[in-house]
UniProtKB/TrEMBL annotation:
Organism whose genome encodes this protein: Parathielavia appendiculata
SUPFAM superfamilies linked: Cytochrome P450
InterPro entries xref list: Cyt_P450 (IPR001128), Cyt_P450_E_grp-I (IPR002401), Cyt_P450_sf (IPR036396), Cytochrome_P450_monoxygenase (IPR050121)
Domain of life per record: Eukaryota
Record protein name field: Cytochrome P450
PANTHER family hit by this protein: CYTOCHROME P450, CYTOCHROME P450 12A4, MITOCHONDRIAL-RELATED
Length: 502
């Protein structure tokens, strides 16, 4: 027989299938044999064989809930992949996230757009970037931004007022608030988020699309490059969403420089970023880095803050008793007298309790944050792990641990109020388990800014309106899913606001 007679289509197909099957079997065997994680660590069977299954869980939007169920079944340490573990015990917080930890941010951070403070892995490089940016996020700096924040919240309250008595999407309004605050303080101009009634600015479409595109780029580069080559205009627009976001940030930055120069008196975080920190002598970042940072910060600010605001309103609608307590607290405090000054609102225990409970039950980053070990032997909660092991703890689970939060699924702002009626910050042990803002050197830089926005928003809305669910539909919409950040499943939060008498 000639060689050609063997080259039939079935023979070639069988050969390709055999090579693929061999490849898969070899990958599985090497995953099992070469796994750096002791075989005694429990977890689902598939997690021993391949990292693909947790990738599918990620894509489904149910990572936080799946990993939580695994901890309930297997205990405080669970294998998620041949080289990935999730921890839920307090002893793991410090070695994974704390000061002095040798773990670095995991590979997923390489997917997130352009490298800045958020994405940097190298501790020295991150320290240096932090040194040159930290001053913009100080309490003092943010206090100067308060008039801008209040003016955006004026617009938010006005937009909700227009919809009083009707069903409206509170998620939309909260996201638009977070977007416009970010625009005002980080880019020096409003996004005009409330100009188009319920139409979000075009920027939001690109912001929403950028993450899925980066995700595809990270997990399936071949698919990404193939999609990039297809000459379909709508697809091309989708694939270049991230470019749009960075171009918008850069254009806004250049416009700001043109209009205000480098030393203006405008009270924005951008002004402070451009000026550097005269108090410590920290010199400003190069323009290209400022441009990247303002886009990254806007990205970090919008969904986190917006979704948290919507979940707080949803919880208040579910719990009319706490809504009433909050209204009473606001109306009997000096809130109106001080025009809802943040300094005043900071002292209100029910307001604080409502926000803390929302952040506890609905953390904006419910799963992860993922870290990678760098030492050849990193001890985490008694386990010695080699370099390049992926490790994480998820706020969704630690913040529902009944040992620290009795009756954990109950929305109970009273946990954060002492018997004498003052704010209860919780014990240090309990605070360790609150991972909502991250921990250690990579803690959220925008914590103060987000807290200020959310407290002013909630106080001003609850002073003016009662809020109610739109029946079962709202519960279905607000089911929690997560694609790195928390996203309500229905992408909507149907609520009815009713104007209260003065
Ligand atoms: C409710 C609102 C927010 C929540 C719950 C939240 C949560 C988080 C979490 C959990 C991390 C840690 C991620 C990690 O360790 O990998 C983080 C990091 C970060 N967040 Fe936020 N965030 C919020 C709002 C904001 C806002 C408004 C900004 C900026 C204006 C911001 C800027 C950042 C930055 C820059 C980092 C990276 C810090 C670093 O690595 O040094 N966040 N955030």
């Amino acid at each position: 027989m000639t060689l050609e007679s063997y080259l039939t289509v079935p023979a070639l197909a069988a050969t390709v299938a055999a090579v693929l099957a061999g490849n898969i079997i070899w990958t599985i065997i090497s995953n099992v044999l070469a796994s750096p994680i002791p075989s005694s660590v429990p977890g689902p069977f598939l997690a021993r064989l391949t990292s693909k299954w947790i990738l599918f869980v990620d894509m489904s939007g149910y990572r936080a809930r799946t990993v939580d169920a695994l901890h309930k079944k297997y205990g405080p340490v669970v294998r998620l992949a041949p080289n990935e573990l999730s921890f839920s015990c307090r002893e793991a917080v410090q070695p994974i996230y704390g000061t002095g930890s040798t773990c670095i941010k995991g590979p997923i951070y390489d997917y997130f757009g352009k490298r800045g403070l958020f994405q940097m892995k190298d501790a020295g490089e991150h320290r240096e970037r932090h040194r040159r940016m930290a001053h913009i996020f100080s309490a003092g700096s943010l206090q100067q931004m308060e008039p801008l924040v209040q003016s955006v919240i004026d617009r938010t309250v006005g937009a909700i007022e227009n919809k009083a008595g009707q069903v409206c999407d509170a998620l939309h309004f909260c996201r638009m608030m977070a977007l416009d605050v970010a625009g005002e303080v980080l880019m020096g101009k409003s996004f005009g988020a409330f100009d188009g009634q319920e139409n979000a600015p075009v920027y939001v479409k690109h912001l929403d699309n950028a993450y899925p595109v980066w995700f595809i780029q990270g997990i399936a580069p071949l698919v990404y490059h193939t999609l990039n080559m297809l000459p379909i205009p709508a697809l091309q627009e989708f694939m270049t969403s991230g470019d749009y976001v960075y171009k918008y940030g850069n254009d806004a930055f250049e416009e700001f420089l043109r209009l205000n120069g480098r030393t203006s008196n405008r009270r924005t975080l951008l002004t402070k970023l451009i000026a550097g920190n005269p108090e410590t002598g920290a010199e400003p970042l190069p323009d290209a880095d400022i441009s990247t940072e303002v886009s990254n910060l806007t990205f970090a600010a919008v969904d986190t803050t917006g979704n948290t605001g919507a979940y707080a309103l949803y919880r208040l609608a579910c719990h009319p008793d706490w809504q009433e307590k909050l209204q009473t607290e606001i109306r009997t405090s000096r809130a109106r007298e001080t025009n809802f000054a943040y300094r005043m609102l900071q002292t209100l225990p029910v307001l604080n309790g409502v926000l803390m409970e929302t952040l506890r039950l609905h953390p904006a980053q419910p799963s992860g944050p993922l870290r990678e070990t760098t030492d050849h032997s990193t001890n985490i909660a008694g386990l010695n792990l080699p370099a390049k092991t992926l490790v994480s703890m998820q706020a969704y689970t630690t913040q529902r641990d009944p040992a620290y939060f009795p009756n954990p699924d109950k929305f109970d702002p009273g946990r954060w109020i002492k018997a004498d009626g003052t704010i209860n910050p919780g014990t240090p042990e309990l605070q360790d388990m609150m991972l909502v803002w991250g921990k250690g050197p990579r803690t959220c830089s925008g914590q103060y800014m987000a807290t200020m926005e959310l407290k002013i928003l909630l106080a001003r809305l609850m002073d003016r309106f009662g809020v109610a669910l739109h029946g079962e539909k709202t519960h279905l919409e607000m089911e929690m899913t997560d694609h790195f950040v928390l996203i309500p499943k229905g992408h909507c939060c149907s609520l009815v606001f009713t104007t209260l008498g003065s």
